[in-house]
Amino acid sequence: MSTDTPGIDPLLALRAPQDPACDVFLTGTVFLDIIFTGLDSAPVRGTESWARGMGSSPGGVANMATALARLGLRTSLAAAFGDDHYGEYCWDALEQGEGIDLSMSHTVPGWHSPVTVSMAYEGERTMVSHGHEAPAPATFPGTVPGPPDREAPTGTASTGTARIGSAPGSAPAGTTPAGTAGTGSVPAGTTPAGTAPGSAPAPHPAFPRCPPRARAAIASLVPGRSEPWVASAARHGALIFADVGWDETGRWDLDALPDLAHCEAFLPNAEEAMRYTRTDCPRAAAHALAERVPLAVVTLGAEGAYAVDGRTGAAAQVPAIEVEALDPTGAGDVFVAGFVTGTLADWPLADRLAFAGLTAALSVQEFGGSLSAPGWAEIAAWWQRIRTLDDQDPAALERYAFLEELLPTTARAWPLRRAVPTIGFRQ
């Protein structure tokens, strides 16, 4: 991320004292991503391949969290972190490097961080991952969530942070099974109100039972599974934005996505949308989905994206920006982050699609999921440069004219080289 990113707050004109402190809440699994680039082809069995480039960064749900934070949204992430060096690095990169709130996150003693190795070549990627589900966090009075301990041995607390113990059983990383209490957050040495001195303090309600109040939350829908926190967040006023993965059951039944009923926007890709709606056209699929959710957004790959507002019936389509893709890792997450930003800022539907597509296009020109997420400096530099090129279609440029009111009058020259965090280096 560029160190001189302009301090743009896309929601500044809309903020009020009674608003939640958090703009967007999300949860999921954080991976340590190791990315190899500059490969001419896929690795061949029995041979060694040398890559011309390599980087490392937090991945998984961290891709989305980083993309949101770099666009100026106050982002809160609930996730499990290992107490290994990878976990320490990911925590520091997200909290200190990106300014993401990790107060709902916790460290799991003895659990190693999930890892993904990604190889980018021929405009695509191949990934190999390894990891185990994080044990569910137990509630211990007097403990607070904290980053991996740099000094104390596993299972012991050091000054300023406390370890979160693990209970038998497993749950998706960053979550607690329904009906169990989450991580407590009672300051050490204090007694919560209503608790008699000398008795065990009552656990402080925490995620997932009580997700933080937020303007929006992002969920990943899974067939046949409901996440209680989604309904809770929606009841407390959060707009729910959801994507979905491939349905391994092969049923492709919208009724098997119970949390869809709580969603403000649903953002599948074209293939997913057509399968779920039994249609043979992505645009028809978007209109069908708009009967189930207020906003249906279908990504069309090289053709851009198409969206339908189910409340008004309005539709919009914006073509993709042609770029030379280095690594598509995390581009979908960046697209969602851009669309969430535009929606919370109350932009017109077409502007939201254009902005989401732009941020995704900028991301694929760099390697790595969270590494490649653009900030306002990258967006400003692109807008300044693109208007100086002679072969640009004026009508196409007009599609992005709304950026004029958002961006600073001066920007750094293109291309921008971003800082690349790597585990091997420390300042």
From TrEMBL:
Keyword Ligase: no
Classification via Pfam families: PfkB
Stored PANTHER family: KETOHEXOKINASE (PTHR42774:SF3), PHOSPHOTRANSFERASE SYSTEM TRANSPORT PROTEIN (PTHR42774)
Gene3D superfamilies per record: 3.40.1190.20
Native organism: Streptomyces rhizosphaericola
Composition-biased stretches (Pro residues): 200-211
Keyword tags: Kinase, Transferase
Keyword Protein biosynthesis: no
SUPFAM superfamilies given in the database record: Ribokinase-like (SSF53613)
InterPro entries: Carboh/pur_kinase_PfkB_CS (IPR002173), Ketohexokinase-related (IPR052562), PfkB_dom (IPR011611), Ribokinase-like (IPR029056)
Residues of the Carbohydrate kinase PfkB domain: 51-132, 240-374
GO molecular function: kinase activity
Compositionally biased residues, Low complexity: 165-199
Record protein name field: Sugar kinase
Highest taxon listed in the record's lineage: Bacteria
